[in-house]
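Entry type: protein chain
Record version: 2
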Amino acid sequence: MALAWQPQEEGLVQILTLLKESQSPDTATQRAVQQVSLKFKITWYVECKLDVCDGAFGALQKICEDSAEVLDSEALDRPLNVLIPKFLQFFRHSSPKIRSHAIACVNQFIISRTQVLMMHIDQFLENLFHLASDEDPEVRKNVCRALVMLLEVRMDRLIPHMHSIIEYMLMRSQDSDDGVALEGCEFWLSLAEQPICKDALSPHLPRLIPVLVRGMKYSEIDIILLKGDVEEDEMIPDREEDIKPRFHKSKTHSQKHMDDNVEEDGDSEDGLDDDNSLSDWNLRKCSAAALDVLANVFHEELLPVLLPILKETLFHQDWEIKESGILALGAIAEGCMNGMVPHLSELVPYLITCLNDKKALVRSITCWTLSRYSHWVVGQPHDMYLKPLMTELLKRVLDPNKRVQEAACSAFATLEEEACTELVPYLGFILETLVFAFNKYQHKNLLILYDAIGTLADSVGHHLNKQEYINLLMPPLIQKWNILKDDDKDLFPLLECLSSVATALQAGFLPYCEPVFKRCVSLVEQTLNQNMANAAHPDQFEAPDKDFMIVALDLLSGLAEGLNGHMEQLVLSSNIMQLLFQCMQDPIPEVRQSSFALLGDLSKACFQHVNPCISDFVPILGQNLNPEFISVCNNATWAIGEISVKLGSEMKPYVPMVLNQLVVIINKPNTPKTLLENTAITIGRLGYVCPEEVAPMLQQFIRPWCASLRNIRDNEEKDSAFRGICSMIGVNPGGVVQDFIFFCDAVASWVNPKADLKQMFYEIFHGFKNQVGEANWKRFSEQLPAPLKERLLANYGV
């Protein structure tokens, strides 16, 4: 082979030393080497020695991954201006390794839209298309990665070639190399987010959908890794490394809505993690996720293609194919629900029989898929679907296979959320099963069982407060509570569970409340003390894990909510108010969030102990009305409202500390619904106790105030807020004139206001009508939508 370049030995040694040191564990050495090597602007010629070239490219790829910004910096005279054109030449190198390195290097600069790459974008695309059918899997992988990123960054350049790219990705999604197939499958996830998805993909659905369903089938290696042939493993203890770390979600105060059955944050478990021991993203999960997102783009249009495939797979003799069909049916549940409804009366009973399949992996995926249709199940006559589903699902909660236990517990928690008080007639049976599982489960599933019990308590509320249920449920929970040490992270899910149980049981929790209260206070105090020790002597004391304190604060909130006035004695004999003052000033937002939730609950339960601290507490609440920390701001806002109602006219000196910021929040675009609702309620409550102070600002918030509260259910908080708005209109009627139509709409949202509140609304409507005169009122009422006009006439005679 003729060589165009013979390196001097000294120079070669220098370069190889640099490359070696670039892998140094010392980051300072790495950084220095990167700077030097970049300044060298190492370039190669196409026919350099392959072994040197490959090694250098490998190192350069590493530098591109770690120092993408540095390579484009003016300080180094933008090395990329030389490197990108050089990389593009290497796309056509005879060695597949070099081709692969070259694409991987360029790929590092796509998402950041690096200027020099954008200038060479057409050449880049041309070279990518040239490599489309490369025989090397690593090259094909990197081509797929590039095209997926270009969808986000340069869709304009891909559109003319979209038909060919989709054809190419269809082939890659079926590649004989699983790694390439996974990269190809990622394309459908990205394309689904693009506005052109529907038009571009419609003609290809008949070929794409079968590919995705085939991709959902467990591979042989998956089955080996999942021990798919092991049917009974309930006696085998879990390995600690198999238990994922758990993160506590701090308490947030929110309102119930008239259309509550809809998940607001959409973070429900997607069930594609039914195979946790394959925690890596794989072709099966990616294919299922792609079908899920495409179902949300195409909805019922998918079904003519998908239903024949489901008919074939769901009833297949081969269990792996049957299992993939059940997964596909679950994946489309959200996007294709309307189109699936006519088939569910046949499919749901079939799935319930699949809960008894002899293969554990079929039983576990069936649990998940049924949970995806639980909203429909709950809406049908109980005897037809809910009762058989619940009976079989509870059998699976006690399955001899741990994966099935986990899937059944999670599915049952979803069913609890959907069914709520519909489950009350079956509580005894449910509790007997869940409590039996306490003695059966290994470590990992025990943590999921706590969730299922907590969700049950949240769903059925005070219906749980029956002595027979308490006698079933509390002994195993308290036994676990007594065994766990204060530094055991298993306390997190147990405390979360107890918080829900305490809130639901109300006075039924009294026999257990004192030791639980004392331990929570102790956990908060220990964490604060360890934090102070660490701040003073970081070399001697470790920083505490503040999650212990957060979970303890949330359980105290649950106690206050459930026990109400019974909290008084517990708070009296503790230092919780002093500890709360410290927690409210913690630098960690989640600590402040939980502190403010507890302050609000204590204000409701035993205000006599909060009152002496008000002058210290309210300024801190005011400082936390920062919508950048949504949940902190939300709970601080709610606590201010609860304090106002208890403090009455004595709230007057504190109104200036909070009102302006609340008005800013309610007018801020893109503010989350929960925060808007709590802000509106708190402004209304401030106006209820101090109308003279708040009413002058009425015009600045009345429109968003009305819009925020029109959808929430009748309750005490809504009641006090509307009394406040009526009082403020009394003080400043001019403040509502321009937006009176919004006020009419908000009042019409009441289903059953108390008689005296209804009278207030009546007086405001008739006062306005008399003020403007019959003719003007008629003109105004003609602008109102017909349903609103009818409600006002029927309820208020206007």
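Comment: Residues 510-536 form the longest helix (27 residues).
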